[in-house]
Amino acid sequence: MTRTNTMLEVSGLGHRYGGANGHQAIADLTFEVRTGELACIVGPSGCGKSTMLRGISGLIKPTSGDVTLHGEPVDGVPSDLAVVFQDYSRSLFPWKSVRANVEFPLQSRGVGRAERRERADEVLEWVGLSGAAKKYPWQLSGGMQQRVSIARALACRPALLLMDEPFASVDAQTRFELEDLLLRVRKQFDSTVLLVTHDIDESIYLADRVFVLSKSPATIVKDLEIPLGRERDQITTRESETFVHLRSEVARLLDVKSAGPAPASAAETTQIM
Ligand SMILES: Nc1ncnc2c1ncn2[C@@H]1O[C@H](COP(=O)(O)OP(=O)(O)OP(=O)(O)O)[C@@H](O)[C@H]1O
């Protein structure tokens, strides 16, 4: 892999389902994610976020535009890309242990047995699940299962980690813990992350940069730098003036009528309908 300043380049990406007279899900998306950056995409429900991620990850062939990963065109699913989905219960194998789940994609990438074990143990330690390596996913809480999904993605040492609403199916407290876990692991592994979320506050809390999408067919209405520094805290960051200002700006761009003032409790966040 060539280490360039741009990890992901999306240029004029569009996708129409169902042929010429079908449904235009995304129109003309152009943006870049820099190497080492954590970028969030926030947009209204149904605007085409999943379609965009499918196009970027090579799961579908977009009907227009180009995607390049570290300078190479994406054509099919790149082996150095990993995706974490919202629905952890369907993405983990219930009959495999936690460790075997984490090792699984390494096997198909040709990583030898000893290294698979070493990498799995390293990432499981990082997500705080060393003690659960021999358990099965169904023996774990939802938040723990999503930690396993994150560990599995990290074990592949992806050039780019794509995350599709990864924390949307867990309770508020667990969500904050997982957000902080993501901030810690991206620092540890120097990861480049593109995360899609409905949650304005989450996008600002996590990101170095937020791309705000329009309604379907999606285009980018704003590319916002988030000058909150690398160290973030669920209470003090969220009550800072910069955070509150950015939150209102994104809500305005998305035309969210109920954004109001910053939440008194970190558990209240702004969801886009
Ligand atoms: N396989 C498909 N065939 C036809 N239309 C589709 C298909 N997948 C998605 N769509 C349509 O494309 C549009 C964008 O869908 P997509 O799932 O990408 O949006 P989204 O922003 O991820 O939605 P949500 O926020 O609800 O998860 C929607 O109108 C959807 O109905």
Topology:
Elements lengths: L5 E12 L5 E12 L3 E5 L6 H8 L7 E6 L2 E2 L7 E4 L3 H4 L6 H11 L4 H14 L15 H14 L4 E5 L7 H18 L3 E5 L2 H7 L2 E5 L6 E6 L10 H4 L1 H14 L19
Parallel strand pairs: 3-8, 3-9, 6-7, 7-8
Antiparallel strand pairs: 1-2, 1-4, 4-5, 9-10
Bound molecules: adenosine-5'-triphosphate (ATP).
What would you note in describing this structure?
The structure is a single chain. This protein has 273 residues and is α/β, with parallel strands linked by helices. The chain has 2 domains: 1-45 and 56-80 and 159-261, P-loop containing nucleotide triphosphate hydrolases (Rossmann fold); 93-157, no CATH class. It has 9 helices and 10 strands. It has helices at residues 49-56, 88-91, 98-108, 113-126, 142-155, 172-189, 200-206, 236-239, 241-254, and strands at residues 6-17, 23-34, 38-42, 64-69, 72-73, 81-84, 160-164, 193-197, 209-213, 220-225. Strand 4 (64-69) and strand 5 form a beta hairpin. The longest helix is centred in the middle third of the chain and has 18 residues, at 172-189. The relative contact order is 0.17. It binds adenosine-5'-triphosphate. Adenosine-5'-triphosphate is lined by residues 17-18, 23, 25, 43, 45-51, 216.
